[in-house]
Amino acid sequence: AFISIEVIISFYANSMELSDGFCIDYSVNDGLDYLTAKCFFAISMNGLWYDDTSVLIDLAPYDETLSQMRIRFRCETDSLNDDILIDKVAIFGLQDND
């Protein structure tokens, strides 16, 4: 069984203000509910690519019940002109060595 999931992405922010951002969420119950793994706000990096940004999701609390999970990207912006371009998504399952 996996003890954690690592999500690695590259992204580019365009026209984002300090209050804008995006989040990586996950679900352990087939998409009925989502939990937030990490949010990226106050993105002052407009016009730059950010490569190999890593987010670790701890699955230990769900060890006995988890059979499948989902990951989603969610924008938290205040305008249709705010863009996050996501590229090179990699997802790795990390196993316990026991």
At a glance:
With 98 residues, this protein is mainly β. It has strands spanning 2-14, 21-27, 35-41, 49-58, 70-76, 83-95.
How would you summarize the topology of this molecule?
Blueprint: E1 2-14, E2 21-27, E3 35-41, E4 49-58, E5 70-76, E6 83-95
Antiparallel strand pairs: 1-4, 1-6, 2-3, 2-5
Detailed description of the structure:
By secondary structure, the protein is mainly beta. Helix content is 0%, strand content 58%. It contains no helices and 6 strands. It has strands at residues 2-14, 21-27, 35-41, 49-58, 70-76, 83-95. The chain has a 3-stranded antiparallel beta sheet with strand order 4-1-6, with no helix packed on it. A hairpin with a 7-residue loop joins strand 2 and strand 3 (35-41). It is elongated, with a radius of gyration of 15 Å. The termini are close together.
Strand runs, count: 6
Which range does the strand content fall in? Answer: over 45%
Task: Output the structural class.
Answer: mainly beta
Helix content: under 10%
Output the radius of gyration.
15 Å
SSE string, helices as H and strands as E: EEEEEE
Count of runs of 4 or more consecutive helical residues: 0
- Order of strands across the main sheet: 4-1-6
Q: Termini separation (Å)?
A: 10 Å
| Average pLDDT number | 86
The biggest beta sheet reads: 3 strands, antiparallel
Low-pLDDT stretches are none
Overall geometry comes to elongated
